[in-house]
Amino acid sequence: MMKLLLSAALVALASATPAKRAQANIPVDVPLPASFPAVVDGATPFVSGAASKVKRATLIVDVWMDSDRAGRHEGLYTDTNRCYNLGNGWNDEISSLSVPSGYGCIFYRNNDCGSNDNRLTVPGGNYIANLQSYDFNDKISSYLCYN
Ligand SMILES: [Ca+2]
C-alpha cells in the first residue's frame, strides 16, 4: 500500500514538472576575474590574460561541434560577466566558434571558469575555424564573456 502511494506521488510529481529543454549553457555562481581584457574587435586570440568591468549585457556565442562551422550548431545566449558551464552535449565538444563584435570571451578547459585554469581569450569579432590551432579542440568546459 505504501509503495503504491509512493509511485502515485511520483507520477503526480513528474506530470507537474514541465519537460525541460536541455540547457547548453548553465550559469554558475563563481567568483569573477578581478579584471578583463580590453575589447578590441578583430584582435588576435590569445591563450591567457585577463582589463574593464561594465554593466551586464547579453550576446550570442555561436558554437559548432566540428571545425569550419560544421556539425551541430547552437547560439548560446550569454550574459556578460557570468560564468557558464557547458551542457546539452557541448562539454569537451566545441571545435569552432565565433564571438560577436563588442565583446570578448574567455574559454576554460574545466568547469567554473577557474582563475588558474588554462584558458583561451577570444576578442570580439573573431571566428575560430578550428580550435585545434590553440590546442583547445574538444576541450572547452566553461566560458565567461565581458564587454
Ligand atoms: Ca568537436
What would you say this structure looks like, in words?
- The structure is a single chain.
- This protein has 147 residues and is mainly beta.
- Helix content is 10%, strand content 33%.
- The protein has one helix at 2-16, and strands at residues 25-28, 58-66, 70-79, 83-86, 96-99, 104-108, 119-123, 126-128, 142-146.
- The strands form two sheets. The protein has a five-stranded antiparallel beta sheet, with no helix packed on it. A four-stranded antiparallel beta sheet has the order 3-2-5-8, with no helix packed on it.
- A hairpin with a 3-residue loop joins strand 2 and strand 3.
- The longest helix is centred in the N-terminal third of the chain and has 15 residues, at 2-16.
- The N and C termini lie far apart (59 Å).
- Mean pLDDT is 86; it is low at 49-53.
- The structure holds calcium ion.
- Calcium ion binds at residues 65-66, 93, 95, 138.
- Keywords: Signal.
- Residues 1-16 form the signal peptide.
What is the class in the CATH system? Mainly Beta
As laid out across the biggest beta sheet, the strand order is: 1-4-9-6-7
Per DSSP E runs of 2 or more residues, the count of β-strands stands at 9
Shape: globular
As for the number of domains, it is 1
CATH topology: Gamma-B Crystallin, domain 1
Q: What is the percent of helical residues?
A: 10-25%
Oligomer: single chain
The percent range for strand residues is 25-35%
Number of helical regions: 1
Rg computed from alpha carbons, rounded to a whole number of angstroms: 18 Å
CATH H-tier superfamily? Crystallins
Major sheet size, sense and barrel closure: 5 strands, antiparallel
Mean pLDDT: 86
Low-confidence stretches: 49-53
Ligand inventory = calcium ion
User: What structural category characterises the helix and strand content?
Assistant: mainly beta
CATH architecture: Sandwich
What is the succession of H and E elements? HEEEEEEEEE
Distance between the first and last residues' Cα? 59 Å
